[in-house]
Amino acid sequence: MFSGEQVAALLTDLGVSHVITVPDSTIGRWESAIEHSGSVRLVRVCREGEAWQVAAGLYLGGATPLVMIQCTGLFESGDALRNVLHDWKLPVFSIIGYRSYLDQAKLPGDTCLVFTEPLLDAWQIDYRLITSSSELDVIRAHYIACRDAGRPGAALIGE
Amino acid sequence: MTMSQGENAGSRLALVAALETLRRVRRDDEIIITTMGSAREWMKFGEPHALDFILVPSSMGHGTSIGLGLALARPDHRVVVCSGDGSLLMNLGSLASIVAASVRNLVVLVFDNGVYEVTGQQPTAGAAAARAGGRSADFPGIARACGFESVHRFGDSAAWAERARDVLDAPGPTFVALDVEPVAGGIAPHSPGPARARARAFMAALNR
Asked: Containing domain of residue A128, as a range?
């Protein structure tokens, strides 16, 4: 989809200060470029629920965090993101890998396809589905729109 | 790494006394995050400090993670997280994340009473009462194994009162287990006000 260098450049351009992440086989390949960007700090956590709360602390401290996880981690994140996005109303943006959306050969019948988008709707997270490498600017535009409106949002990356 | 054990190991101190010590030694620029029982008792002390972050409502167990984020964002402030043993068990991985992030300004205080106090004092899975063999989970040992720089345990009010400031001042990340008695009838804390407004006030205080 995108190279690590493309993503790192985008995050740098958007002013993201920290990426809090648990990798998958797509977004994990971006780690090295992000880590070596010089302007974005990578924060590794053990479970995805942690990522939202670390992001909350960073936001409260004046930083500009972004959560980067797979959709399976979104499923794990429920109560943590509920608290951050809806109780405290902190506008944390996320990049979420959408397992099996583009390639269903490895996991035919992957239930990630059943639950990911309805769950984002249930959590009232405004997202853009990204399905081709020409859509980096869609992420950029959506991030800026969410930031300017002070609300959370997500880019859902087809994998 | 520093590993210390307070006097009278095996005894327990009162939660309120442990928090009173923290309040007494707290420096004006230190951020204190309280959750669950510690939040309930902390709020009874009166007007909150501008850098108190009462994590109510919460996602149980995530005080350590919010503390990590704050410590990363604000290395100019020490961040003290008051957690419970039940909360910590829900987010044990955060101890590894804290060490991986190399934050020197984060202190995790775990008030270990062995029970889910606010739901009626059911034993946690880490409590001796719930485990074959009667040995409780070794939280300082877990923190040490995760790589915490300073690890301490106290079960005595006088020892904690005497050493608290030095413990907080040590290079972190720091982990302190405080063996406390459950508070009889301890209920879940009430929110002190709208969360969004409190978040904004806290951010403003940090930027003053």
From this structure: 4-158
Contacts with B72 from chain A: Cβ below 8 Å: 18, 41, 43, 54, 57-58, 61, 63
Phi, psi for B12 (deg, rounded to 5)? -135, 150
Instruction: Give the CA distances from residue B3 to residues A82, B148, B156, B175, in Å, rounded to whole numbers and listed in that order.
Output: 37, 10, 16, 10
The verdict on ipTM greater than 0.85 is yes
Parallel/antiparallel/unpaired status of strands B52-54 and B115-116:
unpaired
Q: How many domains does chain A have?
A: 1
Are β-strands A93-98 and A153-158 bridged in parallel, bridged antiparallel, or unpaired? parallel
Provide the residue count of chain A. Answer: 159
User: Which domain CATH number covers A50?
Assistant: 3.40.50.970
Q: What is the pLDDT of residues A97-146, one digit of tens each?
A: 999 999 999 999 999 999 999 999 999 999 999 999 999 999 999 999 99
Closest residue to A43, CB basis, from B72, B74, B96:
B72
Paired tokens of A153: 């949002």
Q: Is B43 helix (H, G, I), strand (E, B) or coil?
A: helix
Domains and CATH numbers, chain B: 2-206 (3.40.50.970)
| Phi, then psi, of A105 in degrees rounded to 5 | -70, -35
Cα distance between residue A22 and residue A72, in whole Å: 11
Q: Smallest CA–CA separation between A77 and chain B, in Å?
A: 10
pTM for the predicted model, two decimal places: 0.96
How far A115 CA sits from the closest chain B CA (Å)? 22
H/E segment holding residue B31: strand B31-34
Both tokens assigned to B4: 């210390």
CA angle A151, A153, A159 (to 5 degrees): 175
